Each structure stands twice: as C-alpha cells, then as structure tokens.
C-alpha cells in the first residue's frame, strides 16, 4: 500500500524534486520535441488494438459459443490461448524478429514470389512493430471477450433467427451488444499497455529509429541520458492523455463499472 | 443445444485453427532453437543436439538471472497475496471512510502504462536514496501484483454468503475460528488463483523490473540485455522447460477438476 502511494505521489512532484525552480517549460519542450513519437504511439496502439479485436473476436466466439457443450476441446483451446503467457514475451518477440529477418524465411519467400525486392525489409518497419504489439496482446483481448461470450444466452440467438433476422443482423443487434463489456475491457487491456510499450519498437527487437514510440523516449531519457525532468514530464503527459482517452471511451460505451 | 456444425461454424473452426498455428509459431521456434547446435549466438540452425539441455548453467548469467526471477516471484507473491487478501476482505466486509480512495489507488496501477510506473518508482528510489537491487525489484513487483490479487480475491469474497460466517458466530465460534475454519477455506480458490496470477505476472515482467533493478538481472532483463549481442541457446532451454512445466501443470489441474466434476455428477 505504502509503496503504491509513493509511486503515484511521486509523479506530480518529482519534476520539482530534481529541478528546484518548478516550471512548465519542460512540458513545452517535450511536446515540441516529441509530438511525433506521441502520435505514433497512439496510432500504433490503436492499430494493434483494432487488429487484436478483429483476430480475437472469432476465436473467443468459437470457444465461448460454438463449443459450448464440448468442455474438453474448449478447455484445451483455452489453455492454448494462455500458453504464450508461459514463455517469456521477449523471447517470443525475438522469435518473430528471427523469422522476419532479412535472411529469414518470410522475406525469402516474399522475394521468391517477387513481392519483395532485395532492398525491402520487414524488421524495423512500422508493420513489424504493430504486428508484434498485436501478437503480444491477443491473449489479453481474447480472455475478456471469451468471459463475456461465455455468458451469452444462446436462446437469444435462436429467438433472433426465429424472428427472421439474418445472421448479420443477429450478430450486430444481439451478439455484439451483449458482448460489449468484454470488448471494452479487452480493448483497454490492450490499448493502455500497448501505448507505453517499448520492447516491440526497440531496435534490438522489431523496431528501428523510425518506429520509436514514447516508451522508448521515456526509457532512454531516464536510463541513458539521465534527464529525469523530461522523462517525468513525458510520463505525466502520457498518463494524462491515456486517462482522457480511456475516460471518454468508457463513458461513450456506457460501461462504468469495469471493476 | 448440441453443437451444430453448420458451414459457418466450420469456416470459423478452420480460421481458429489457422490463428492458433500462427500464435504458436514463436513458441515452437523458441523450443526448436533450444536444441540448436551452437555456442554463442542462436540465430541460424546448425543441427540438432540435446547438449544445451544438459549444460544449462554453462552460461552462468542465465542461471543466476533465472534464480533471481524465481526468488523475486516467490517473495513478491507471498507478500502481495497476504496483503491483498486482507485488503480485499476489508473492502468487501467493512464500510469505512477511505474505501473509495483505496479502490481508486488499487485500480490506478492497472490503468497506467508500465513505463510510467517504472519511471515513477525509479525516481522515488532515487530521491529516497535507496540503492536499486533485489529489494527494490521485490517492492515494485509486490506493488503491481497487489492490485491484481485484490481484484481476484474480492471477486471471490463478493460471491460468499455472509450468513455462513454469521452462523459460525452464532455457534460460539471465536473470530479466529470463524476466519480459519469458514472464511479462509471458502476464499482459498480465489487466493490460489491470485497467487498463480501474481507469480506469472512477476516472473514475466520486464518493463518495471528494468527501471528498478540496477545491476541485478532477472530472466527477462537478462534476455533484453543479451538481445543486443545474441541470446545463448541455454536461455531457450530455461524458457522451454518453464513452459512445459506450466502447460503440464495446467493440463493436470484441468483433468483433476474435470474428474472431480464428473464424480460430483455421480458418474
């Protein structure tokens, strides 16, 4: 409890802790210098969240609704969903790096079929970073979606088709609205950590200097160039923007009691 | 409703299988390359060997980092689970002034990106003059695990019927007896789930650890640092072994549970 109080009380104060004359100049400076990285972080996180949702929803629907009376296969698939948690996510990301490397199988294949020239890369591009983020957060998206869809009363779906709704109508007017709590918590569990992530975008992993996200900037300000005030200002800004986005998102989707 | 294998659910099934194949590729890759015949970097395939599995600690850093991860995970889990269970019970059972603000404080770490928590904690350790090391890592891990423990145990505590505890008190159980013989056993599944969750969160955490670790390396920190020059295959061995243990444990737990449920149904 105490340590938690500390970590949050420190955030507003450590700017003036370390640079005695309190000033707002830090904020102006970091916004002027790092707004592209800020925008990129939110853009990548948004893309990763959308892709993860599109990929995970059918998986969660299949396990939660289609396989409802096959507990054995169902539990096996659930274990497969959480399996990535059991192996270091850094190693998994490095595995993708090796597979996407210039001399790796994927680039080799794309070159053989002529889609890729010798100067084309996958690692170090925005695509690779968004791919890594999407991949790493799919379990965080699938589990809450599954929890919602698992509770879905399938009689409602039957009723809907009895009333001559097309499958599309049934999905958009019955299934999807009922799974909305899962969609909201899944997207939050993906979006928030993805925005602050700096592993996927770092050069030793899937990124390059052109994919630097705000997490990379905070990390290098803090641990390499030892510029604490700017690192602090960036952290506070990141947190403030996330709180605003999350707050308005939660209000719009109308699910206030997430906890 | 029996599973209806309509055309649509078949297509969905094929999609799900394809998705799982892609999702499991990196795991298979990590596993495969733990058998690679190589000494230093582990990028190209040189041939099959089980040598790496027999000489895990030949790269001493790997083993030390792994030991640190286990130690941090165990200590942080024990502290966070104990404190978290008490906080969860307090939040569910008693009305008090700070209740709302404590809930908010517990929710914040889950709504904050890890870089911000990491930088905040590191700045705090710096201003307080605490040297970074195992102690600060454990403190940081306890902090973020606590929130998840409280949420998990609270969900369980909310589903308990308070009248069972009342019955215990009516039958002249002392407060201690009521807690240890009624409340605790009923909460236990939630507490175990919370402990497992917090161990796995702590074990795989990299970002917060990197900010609070100083020169001490946990397993993820070791991999991050080593990634610049190449990961030795021994790291893959450890990751694969942990993975296999966890999967076997999960499957065994699932089978035991299923059998118990079958017995209860009277089969």
Structure description:
- The complex is a heterodimer of chains A (259) and B (267).
- Helices cover 73% and strands 0% of the residues of chain A.
- Chain A is mainly alpha-helical.
- Chain A has a domain at 35-211: Orthogonal Bundle (MetI-like fold).
- In chain A, helix 2 (25-66) packs across helix 9 (180-196).
- The longest helix of chain A has 42 residues, at 25-66.
- Chain A is globular, with a radius of gyration of 22 Å.
- Chain A starts with a helix and ends in a 6-residue tail after the last helix.
- Mean pLDDT of chain A is 84; it is low at 1-20.
- The model of chain B has no long low-confidence stretch (mean pLDDT 86).
- Chain B has helices at residues 7-32, 51-54, 60-93, 99-107, 114-128, 134-158, 162-170, 175-204, 207-212, 219-226, 233-264.
- In chain B, helix 3 (60-93) packs antiparallel against helix 8 (175-204).
- The two termini of chain B are 22 Å apart.
- Chain B is 74% helix and 0% strand.
- At the A-B interface, helix 1, helix 2, helix 3, helix 4 and helix 9 of A face helix 1, helix 4, helix 5, helix 6 and helix 9 of B.
